[in-house]
Amino acid sequence: MTDIFDDLTAECRRLDEVLTALTPEQWAAPSAAAGWTVADVVLHLAQTNDAAGVPADGPAKAFLEPDSAMDAVADAMVAAERGLPPAELLARWRTSAAAMTGRLRDQPPGTRLAWVRTPLSPRTLATTRIAEHWAHALDIAVPLGIPCPDTARLRHIAWLAHRTLPYAFAVEGLPDAPVHCDLTGPDGERWTFGDPAAPNRITGSAGEFCRVGARRLAPGRTSLSAEGPRAADALRVLRNYAA
User: Fold this and answer.
1) Residues 123 and 180 placed together within one structural domain of the fold
2) Does 242 reside within a domain?
3) 159 and 140, same structural domain?
4) Which of 31, 39, 55, 172 could share a disulfide with 139, CB 3.0–4.6 Å?
């Protein structure tokens, strides 16, 4: 997980390149996030950037409430600011991304920061922000036919998905189960997570694995292999986020 903050900056920079080239019509086009335009997705990213690394009783209090219904909160927050012109919205997101990355990078060791369901370390919170920017970049780029190739930064997202499997099982009311993941990165890298002796094993494309965790791809539509008594359950509950 070295250079996580640099990788967060790089993930934001790639999205910036996509957004800079959009036409006004594309900003208003439907995204792959149900009910949201491209502009809505960018606004949501700016709002959640504003919430990352700030006091829990600050402006983002509604977002950070542990018992809040996150989808409803996100929809309400977007509705409250919807309608910004594209240039103004792009500037708002850029400012939020730079400020968020700086806040997280500057935190002293041992800090725990309020986040959706549980306090996180600055590095883990930075990982969740990479995951969210990556997933929402797909929501923008794919419907518009804009190339958005996978990068080695997927390793952070795959780590997060595996690391949060106990939480994902618990959310679904299932007992925890050890899972080993043996994944292939976009350039043929081999990424492994978990105990190799675990009775459950998931192998295959890291890109597919991360898309399953982002709920952008159903497990049955992937080439991922799930072996062991609980491996299919793990793929079904997999998530790259904490809501």
Assistant:
1) no
2) no
3) no
4) 31
Q: Yes or no: say if 4 and 153 are a contact pair by the CB < 8 Å rule.
A: no
Instruction: Write out pLDDT tens, residues 223-243.
Output: 999 999 999 999 999 999 765
Helices 206-213 and 122-144, packing angle to 10 deg: 100
Q: Crossing angle, helix 154-163 and helix 122-144, to 10 degrees?
A: 120
The answer to whether the beta carbons of residues 124 and 95 sit under 8 Å apart is no
CB-count exposure of residue 71 (10 Å: 0-12, 13-18, 19+): exposed
Q: Domain total for the chain?
A: 2
Whose CA is closest to 152, among 202, 98, 188?
Answer: 188
Residues 94 and 170 in one domain: no
193 - beta bridge partners? 181
29: containing domain: 4-144
pLDDT digits (tens, 9 = 90+) for 81-126: 999 999 999 999 999 999 999 999 999 988 999 888 788 999 999 9
